[in-house]
Model the fold of this input.
Amino acid sequence: MVDAFSAGDYLLVGVFFLLWIGIQAFAIALGLLSPTIHAARLHFVEWMGKFYDGSGRVFSPLGGQPLHVEGNA
Done:
């Protein structure tokens, strides 16, 4: 980075600075939103047990056919 200043390549330094500012802004936004996201997730997990009754069809992925078939060896 010091070589960029001595060579007069101020555009490269400016691009790196703007990239650094963008990454820092993303990190701050993620840090501010993270508690809200985790609180919403916990509310969903705790409330799901009150309303979930387990009725419905049994989940059978791939139409109930096994993905791997073992042969007789």
Observations:
- Residues 10-51 form the longest helix (42 residues).
- The chain has a mean pLDDT of 82.
- Residues 24 and 30 are 10 Å apart (CA to CA).
